[in-house]
Amino acid sequence: MNTHRWIALLLGTALVTAGCGGGSAGAPAALVSAALLQALFAWNEFAFALVFVSDDSLKTLPVGLMAMQSRLLTDWPVMMAGLTMAALPTIVLFLIGQRQFLRGLTEGVGK
After folding, report:
1. What SS3 class is residue 63?
2. Which long-range contacts (CB under 8 A, 24 or more apart) does 41-48 make?
3. Under a CB-based contact definition with an 8 Å cutoff, are residues 36 and 11 in contact?
4. What is the pLDDT of residue 32?
5. Number of domains into which the chain is organized
6. Is residue 94, in this structure, part of any structural domain at all?
7. Whole-angstrom Cα distance, residue 57 to residue 24?
8. pLDDT at 45
9. pLDDT at 106
10. For the chain, does the N or the C end have fewer beta carbons within 10 angstroms?
11. Residue 98 resides in a domain
């Protein structure tokens, strides 16, 4: 199973568990926090895609955006549109699970 399907499975399971009230009180929040952070790390995996992936169709969006730059000319409107598109999935995932995410981060802070 690839990383993106695994993250979607974790995030979906955490949101369903949070909605059903099953499990312990902190389990859904911890799962959402872990899934969101792992999705962010997988989405922004720059070094791996730059060094080890040779097929252009398999490279991540940040690496593709880097390939659009040159020493003498950069099309800034296209670059900003690409960066916006690259940030949208992470923002949407955070907005969907922000309550559980923040609860998962602050759950073990203190009494």
Report:
1. helix
2. 42/3, 42/4, 42/7, 43/86, 43/89, 43/90
3. yes
4. 77
5. 1
6. yes
7. 42
8. 79
9. 78
10. C
11. yes
End-to-end CA distance of the chain: 39
Residue bearing tokens 């926090």:
33
Determine, yes or no, domain membership for 12: yes
DSSP per position, 21-32:
T-S-TTHHHHHH
Q: What is the pLDDT of residue 14?
A: 46
- The Cα–Cα gap between 58 and 61 comes to 9
In angstroms, rounded to a whole number, what is the distance separating the alpha carbons of residues 102 and 30?
9
Residue 111 covered by a domain = no
Give me the pLDDT at residue 7, please.
58
> Averaged in consecutive runs of 10 residues, what is the pLDDT profile of the chain (111 residues)?
57 50 61 79 79 86 83 87 87 84 74 56
**pTM for this predicted structure:** 0.52
**Of residues 13, 65, 58, 57, the one with CA closest to residue 34:** 13
Tokens of 48: 């791996």
The DSSP call for residue 44 is T
Residue 65 structural domain = 3-106
Tokens 């962010």 belong to 40
